[in-house]
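Service request form, structural biology core

Requester: graduate student, group of Dr. S.
Request type: structure prediction, single chain
Budget code: on file
Notes: please return the result as structure tokens.

Sequence provided:
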Amino acid sequence: MSWNRVAVVGAGLIHMGELFDQSYEQMARGAFDAAVDSVDHGFDPTAIDAVFVATQRGTLWGQEGIGGNTIPSAIGLAGVACTRVENACPTGSDAFRVGCMAVASGVHDVVLVIGVEKMRDKSSDEGLLARAAAGHPVYTRGESAPVLFAPFATRHMHEFGTTREMLASVAVKNHHNGVLDPYAHFRNEVTIEQVLAAPPVCSPLHLLDCCPQTDGAAAIIITAPERAADFTDRPVFVAGFGVATDHPYLHEKSTYVGLPATVEASRRAYEMAGISPADVDVAEVHDCFTITEILDIEDLGFVEKGRGGVASLEGETVLDGRIPVNPSGGLLAKGHPIGATGIAQLTECWWQLRGQADERQVAIRNGFALQHNVGGRGSGVSVVNILTTNAS
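Core staff response, request fulfilled:
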């Protein structure tokens, strides 16, 4: 039996991309308005009694006060209780988890979880992501996100025969899905040949193996199940969630062919939801690099360890495959505005479960969708959320 103590009644996002024409607050307002407009029976924003803001702006921009004291005012909810959540790449996912606990505890009745991130207004030369990944001055010297994930690709290749063509198949699939997603940063097809020929970044990863830096915002409205009928006749419930951590530095890792934080977070989420990986109809997973999606589908239990590359190349994860993964286009095509990423993934899961994903709609058989992020220094934290249409 699923946990089901929280219902999702609305969700929305803005178009992801290089949004130089929009301020941080304008992006938040756009996502909020989209979430409000999505509520089937209409929604009075004054019903919201708490806001959880997901953003890495404190780390990325050095503006710690932004979020908790500006977003409520920007979206017309000045005076409401508000808390800022920051937890690396799973920031949005974790803010959702915390918001769910607030509702399930009975402390708050109707909660808004909103993620907002400005990634393009500063260049990488200004240390935007280097600041976020800062750690020991010697252990991390010269490190960047591709440097952290490339060893996993080379080791996976060594142990399981994974090829660059297998990595490239992830990019091809996710860019194809991105073409079908009107909110995606990149809406263009790519071929395996183009991925292989793209400029190298950190061997064996090339440019099209990497997700972009993206501006974006997403919002989701949750409430207690007994209140759901006030807002919709088609609620989606929170079946379970899990969070776990791992060592932050590469030299501390126990494996280079998997991410233990994801394994443990998913185990906790599956146990809470009362399901197994085989029950999941569709998944939005963290594909910051092509190798990451391959690791994810193994660590989440969708394929056995070592088969992630083969499964991707053979089409098991396409829209009409055995286990559709990243129908939104994933981080590779949709983009990765850190604080908004997890909430945007949850919005896609919500649409999929309600049959509202248009051309990228997948077959829903069991009524379960899984959302996953992993990140932080050395992929040191992972969050998994599971949504369901099943009322119990």
